[in-house]
Amino acid sequence: MNFEALNALISAHPFCIPVYAAAEFLHIGEESLRASMDQCRCPFGFSWKLGERSGYKIPTIAFVSWLTKGTFTQMSPT
Predict the structure, then answer these.
(1) Contact 60/44 with Cβ under 8 angstroms?
(2) CA angle (28 as vertex; 26, 31 as ends), nearest 5
(3) Closest CA to 61 of 75, 40, 43, 35
(4) Whether the predicted model's global pTM rises above the 0.90 cut
(5) Mean pLDDT by 10-residue block, N- to C-terminus, for the chain (78 residues)?
(6) Distances (CA, A) of 29 to 35, 62, 70, 74
(7) Most buried residue, 20, 28, 30, 50, by most Cβ within 10 Å?
(8) Three-state secondary structure call for residue 72
(9) What contacts 68, CB < 8 A, 6 or more positions away?
(10) 8-state DSSP, 75
């Protein structure tokens, strides 16, 4: 795993990671990730529907914890 790329992702999105950024990092399609969240099969993100509208959320802490199994320590800027 490229920890420098993960650190850059965390720095760019400290609270919530956009779906496109998470999909790009994981090398999967954005629609595939959305479908996973819609089906409640995504362990780090969730979705909701309100009428015809949908929303998706990936908390950064959940994404990083899942990806690193809770072992990641953010690198300090040098």
Answers:
(1) no
(2) 125
(3) 43
(4) no
(5) 90 97 97 98 97 97 93 69
(6) 10, 20, 25, 26
(7) 30
(8) coil
(9) 1, 6
(10) P
